[in-house]
Amino acid sequence: MGEAARVVARIGATIDELVRDRDRLLATLRAATATATATAPARAPAPPPTPVTVRPTAPPPAPPPAPPAATPWPSPPSIDERSPVPPPSRRVSPQQVLLALGALLVVAAGIAFVAVAWTRLGLVFQSAVMATVTATACGVSAWTARRGLRATEEALAAAGAALLAVDLGAAHALGLWGLDGVPVRLWTAVSCAVVAAVALGLGRWTRSTVTWPLTALLAVQLIPILLVPADAVAGSAGVAAALGTALLDVVVLLRLRAVLAPLAQALAGLWAVVAAAGGVALAWVGTAVDAWTATALLAAAGAVGVLLGQDTRLAGRLPAAPVLAGAAAASTAVALTGALARADLAGQVAAAALGLVLLTAAVPAAPRWTLLAALVPSGGLLIAGGAALLAVEGRLGVLGLVVLAGTVPAVLAAVRLPAGRPGATVAALLCPATALLLIREEGWLGTAVAGLLAALVAAAGFAVAAARADRPEEPAAAGAAALVTLLAAVATAEAGAWGQVAVQLAIAGAAGGGYALVTHRRDVAVLAVADLVVACWVAAGGAAVQTVEVYTLPAAVGLLVAALPQPRAGARSWAAEGAAVATAVVPSALVVVAEPSALRLVLVVLAAGALTVVGTLTHRQAPFVVGAASLAFVVLGRLTPYAPLVPRWLTLAVVGLLLLALGATYERRRQQAREAVAWVAQMR
């Protein structure tokens, strides 16, 4: 009811709109007629009459002005504009359902006829019946195509194609004309070829039917695989058949209808993936002949695909040339790695070396994207495959040499490719460091030598970062250098060579400090100082040194160096040197009280006194407070053990005298205390 009401409303609105259009058209015609009458040209003058004498008369009155043209009223919005009706959703029509069911039933009847009635009737009669039904379906499909009945022609064409396949299968299964002696694979291939040929012929006869080219496209998919012997499908012949089918699907795109192009593209991609997977698997687990044959087939197919991608007729139907080149090169590289792996160590090294050569060649080929897309993935996969095989077999020394050789393309890329310079810089620093660690694990280099060389690599990284300051590769070089330092320190610490760890940290810390000074980076300077302090601690700990000052004084110096910019900026003493002086004196003062030592006592007292004097002269609060507090703590700590030895009467007398003196001078001492506190408080 709602749909009917809407239709009635639209009809009424359409009638009203037609009435308004009629009124506007009449008004326009009246206005045009009036304008044409007013501006009509004067009649042609008559021949001049015989001259006579006439009296002058007044000129005729001017004609009245034409009425202005009526301005048509703007048309109101139509019912469709006021209440737009959404287009109906695309649904399957009853006609399509009926046609599909009818075609399905006809095909089912043909199958049942072949399966049940074949033995009851003669072969000639049944063959004639099936051929007649199939030909009738195909002929009626062509007739309906010429009458413009699209749905009917497609349904009958589908039924005819299915019946043709049933006829061919039944002829072989039931031994018509001795066809049961033909091998199943061969007859299936012949049947697919017959179906494809018939579909192509009918497709050229009825250009509007989509089912015929679709049937031909699907029928030819299995022909190459079926023509290969069953025992050879798992070999290189199967890979070649799959690649041939993919090539056939690509070539078909040149003549195929646009509506079927996506299907042909999907089929070509599917067969290409199957061929690539089969070729790679064959290269790794098949025989040597099959491995090298599959690798060659994949390489040739990739080259053909790139050439076809350059055809203008296939420009919009195939992936871009770099994508094709990259995929083909990647699959070929994996297959080649498997083929080379059969040669044991020589093959593994050859795969990695070939990958290095390809990556090195990719640097000058950078502007050519297709060539670059082929070289980079193939080179990377060859290196990864060869390195993985070497690592699995435990040949870490050879693997280290391969990784060390990877420095060459990394350095070349860092020099010649500005866009990839940060990543190439990281690779150029990590490759030699990783190679040193691998060679050390193999035992070709000692721990001390390998760690020292790794520290030098880290120092070189900081030097590169300083030289390339304010450029994109600066943080990459600095980060890689820090990572190399950490890796070298951890690897050396695992061997228990703490002295070497300290040397490595010291070298890296000094290089990092130089980088911080050149680039004026405070955060890097703090990290470099911390690295040097840790180096001192590691050296002392490795030597089993238990003296407190060996650990506190380097930390104090580091804190003081890190805080050097603070006094220049006018910062308060606690924010500048407070942590440094406290770290230098307080632990020693605690130790001198807990474990008395004459030398330490003298040195602590001298240091605390010096800090107190320096703080007083420079008017700095932190040195003064730390020095005075340390002196007081040491004095009290040293005198406390002797307090029980003093006679009691002497203690009482001293306390009493002190109280009397304090009471007599209470006001003056109170004022002096306030002044002293104020003086200390106003220090910076």
TrEMBL record:
Keywords carried by this UniProt record: Membrane, Transmembrane, Transmembrane helix
Q: Where is this region: Disordered?
A: 36-91
Signal sequence bounds: none
The portions of this protein that span the membrane are 97-118, 124-143, 155-178, 184-203, 210-227, 233-254, 266-285, 291-308, 320-339, 345-363, 370-390, 396-415, 422-439, 445-464, 476-495, 501-518, 525-544, 598-617, 624-643, 649-666
Biased amino acid composition, Pro residues = 44-77
Which intervals of the chain form a coiled coil?
A: none
**NCBIfam families membership:** SCO7613_CTERM
Q: What is this protein called?
A: DUF2157 domain-containing protein
Which organism is this protein's natural source? Answer: Geodermatophilus africanus
